[in-house]
């Protein structure tokens, strides 16, 4: 994998903005490039500090760290803008410079039965998406990019928790093709009713997400049943600006009305070690990224539900209704 960090754009932006001190936030897969990026920034006479906190998406912009450190600018590498925040941020999306033709050819047998496809990409492939679209059109497919909707930055762009742009075109396509990795395609298959095909450029793999979807839905039903039997429960609220989903006060009232002994807990990041100390809690509802509960099922010894799943557990929503809407 060859990455283009757009050094010239970075330097141009910094020269224009003229910060004296910056905080650099790197997505998890590119923290290894910190020293090189530091050299570029410090060569301009700018003090450079790197965030060591985890960064799984642009929902985790390190605004609180930046404010605490008194920097003039937050430079965020690896994601597109996700939310509006009251702090200056420079987003450097980073490009994967790859020859996609071999894996696109490899995908054609998986798409033989589909005449029209919905196409989405993770942000590192944005620069190449018109070439991908043309490839499929040249091979007889009708291609529709997912819509720019919600927190997605561009037409065709997909993130881990925003699928309204895909849902908007679902009636127009026979299947969806996701250029990226399993994280994005797994969320898509849970949000949609049409087939989802992953083109995993990092593992040179093309596969349907159908089998994984069935496995995850069984896990979710298991967690919901465990939550129904739980007496002591907790609502977890993350304090990051892009990780706030739902109203904890309203949910707390609903859980207590359903006979649960419920409390609210705040965290900067949800981990197994942190919840372990609340040993008296039988089950949790997380109002942070819904993918925590869905992706990390095996990591946690106690059930963790999303907001929608909690509504199912206390009888305010039906499981069929959630499935029709999409569980993310």
Folded structure, characterized:
The strands form four sheets. The protein has a five-stranded mixed β-sheet, with helices on both faces. A four-stranded parallel β-sheet has the order 3-2-4-5, with helices on both faces. Strands 13-12-14-15 form a four-stranded parallel β-sheet. With 328 residues, it is of the alpha/beta class. The mean pLDDT is 93. It has three domains: 94 residues, Rossmann fold, CATH 3.40.50.11840; 108 residues, Rossmann fold, CATH 3.40.50; 107 residues, Diphthamide synthesis DPH1/DPH2 domain 3 (Rossmann fold, 3-Layer(aba) Sandwich), CATH 3.40.50. α8 packs across α12. α2 links the parallel β2 and β3.
Give the mean pLDDT: 93
Low-confidence stretches: none
Q: DSSP strand (E) fraction?
A: 15-25%
Order of helices and strands: EHEHEHEEEHEHEHEHEEHEHEHEHEHH
Q: Termini, distance in Å? A: 30 Å
**What would CATH call the architecture of the largest domain?**
3-Layer(aba) Sandwich
Quick gist of this model?
The protein is of the alpha/beta class and 328 residues long.
Secondary-structure blueprint:
Layout: E1 3-4, H1 7-17, E2 21-26, H2 34-42, E3 47-50, H3 63-69, E4 73-77, E5 89-92, E6 95-96, H4 101-107, E7 116-121, H5 129-138, E8 142-145, H6 164-167, E9 175-180, H7 182-191, E10 196-200, E11 205-208, H8 210-229, E12 232-238, H9 248-257, E13 261-267, H10 272-276, E14 283-286, H11 290-295, E15 304-305, H12 307-313, H13 319-325
Parallel strand pairs: 2-3, 2-4, 4-5, 7-8, 7-9, 9-10, 12-13, 12-14, 14-15
Antiparallel strand pairs: 1-6, 10-11
Helix pairs in contact: 8-12
């Amino acid at each position: 994998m060859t990455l283009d960090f757009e050094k010239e754009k970075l330097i141009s932006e910094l020269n224009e903005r003229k910060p004296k001190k910056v905080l650099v936030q790197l997505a998890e897969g590119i923290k290894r490039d910190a020293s090189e990026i530091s050299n570029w920034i410090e060569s301009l006479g700018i003090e450079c500090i790197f965030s060591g906190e985890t960064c799984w998406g642009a929902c985790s912009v390190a605004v609180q760290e930046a404010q605490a450190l008194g920097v003039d600018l937050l430079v965020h590498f690896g994601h597109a803008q996700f939310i509006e925040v009251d702090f200056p941020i420079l987003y450097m999306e980073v490009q994967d410079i790859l020859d996609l033709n071999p894996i696109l050819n490899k995908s054609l047998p998986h798409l033989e039965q589909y005449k029209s496809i919905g196409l989405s990409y993770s942000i590192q492939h944005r620069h190449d998406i018109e070439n991908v679209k043309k490839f499929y059109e040249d091979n007889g497919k009708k291609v529709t990019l997912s819509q720019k909707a919600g927190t997605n930055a561009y037409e065709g762009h997909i993130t881990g928790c925003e699928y309204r742009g895909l849902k908007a075109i679902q009636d127009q396509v026979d299947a969806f093709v996701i250029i990226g990795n399993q994280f994005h395609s797994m969320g898509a298959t849970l949000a949609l009713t049409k087939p989802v095909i992953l083109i995993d450029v990092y593992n040179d793999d093309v596969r349907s997400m159908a089998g994984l979807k069935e496995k995850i839905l069984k896990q979710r039903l298991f967690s919901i049943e465990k939550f129904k039997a739980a007496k002591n429960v907790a609502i977890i609220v993350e304090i990051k600006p892009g990780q706030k989903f739902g109203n904890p006060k309203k949910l707390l009232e609903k859980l207590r009305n359903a006979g649960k002994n419920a409390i609210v807990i705040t965290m900067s990041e949800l981990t197994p070690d942190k919840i372990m100390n609340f040993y008296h809690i039988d089950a949790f509802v997380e109002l942070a990224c819904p993918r925590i509960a869905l992706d990390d099922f095996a990591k946690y010894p106690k059930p963790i539900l999303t907001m929608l799943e909690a509504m199912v557990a206390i009888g305010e929503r039906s499981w069929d209704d959630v499935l029709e809407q999409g569980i993310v």
